């Protein structure tokens, strides 16, 4: 079905499917060009051709107005006295490359029980003020490399806390001025404490000092390097996933 407001001498194309083409409405006359010929038709006229299916060009030959064209199989008998025509079955439609279909002009579709429709792409959707869209589920989404999805909300995002599966304790002793705590990918976080009996401060990484008895919590799975006086110790607790 073709339904559009057209300006004088404006041309549009659509894909006809069926054996008839009926001019339901037009301001004066329309020029119809099919793959089988050219026709100049007024409102109420129709083309009957068993090989009509294909691309159709419509040109409005009158003033600006609404042009409605109905296509289908058999011979079209327009409704009268307010009656309606119900379309219960549609044939398979094949579109040419880069061709589009305005789904806003399709009739109401009723699905059988357990029947599903797969939608690969939707056009841009504009909502009126105060209008909302509820999405109960979405299909699996694959992002291209370096592609990201931005999520914004005026409400704080709540996440479940990480619950430790186990703890691992260790006492590091500084020898030849250094001590090492290996990396651990299962670590949620690590608690570091300079032993209260240390004689000097313990240095972590590039200069973070821990005085005797001072402690530190780090959210990292990386290896840790300490420096200090030989014999001083560092108390370690790893919180593991």
Explain this structure to me?
It is a single chain. The mean pLDDT is 84. Helices cover 0% and strands 37% of the residues. The chain is built from no helices and 16 strands. The two termini are 61 Å apart. The protein is an all-beta fold. 14% of the residues are buried.
Keywords for this structure?
4-stranded antiparallel β-sheet; mainly beta; 241 residues
Structural class category: mainly beta
Physical arrangement of strands within the biggest beta sheet: 1-8-3-6
Main sheet, how many strands, which sense, barrel?
Answer: 4 strands, antiparallel
Q: Helical proportion?
A: under 10%
Total E-strand runs: 16
Order of helices and strands: EEEEEEEEEEEEEEEE
Question: If helices are DSSP runs of H or I spanning 4 or more residues, what is the number of helices?
Answer: 0
């Amino acid at each position: 079905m073709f339904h559009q407001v057209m300006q004088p001498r404006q041309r549009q194309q659509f894909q006809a499917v069926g054996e008839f083409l009926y001019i339901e409405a037009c301001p004066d006359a329309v020029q119809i060009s099919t793959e089988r010929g050219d026709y100049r038709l007024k409102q109420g006229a129709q083309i009957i051709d068993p090989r009509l299916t294909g691309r159709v060009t419509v040109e409005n030959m009158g003033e600006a107005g609404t042009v409605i064209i109905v296509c289908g199989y058999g011979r079209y008998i327009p409704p009268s006295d307010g009656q309606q025509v119900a379309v219960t079955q549609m044939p398979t439609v094949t579109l040419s490359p880069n061709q589009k279909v305005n789904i806003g002009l399709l009739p109401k579709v009723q699905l059988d029980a357990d029947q599903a429709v797969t939608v690969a792409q939707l056009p841009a959707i504009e909502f009126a003020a105060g209008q909302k869209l509820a999405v109960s589920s979405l299909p699996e989404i694959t992002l291209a490399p370096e592609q990201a999805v931005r999520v914004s909300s005026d409400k704080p995002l709540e996440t479940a806390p990480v619950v430790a599966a186990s703890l691992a304790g260790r006492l590091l002793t500084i020898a030849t001025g250094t001590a090492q705590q290996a990396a651990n990918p299962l670590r949620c976080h690590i608690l570091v404490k300079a032993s209260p009996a240390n004689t000097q401060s313990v240095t972590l990484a590039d200069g973070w000092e821990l005085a005797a008895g001072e402690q530190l919590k780090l959210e990292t799975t990386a290896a840790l390097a300490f420096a200090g006086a030989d014999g001083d110790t560092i108390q370690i607790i790893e919180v593991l996933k």
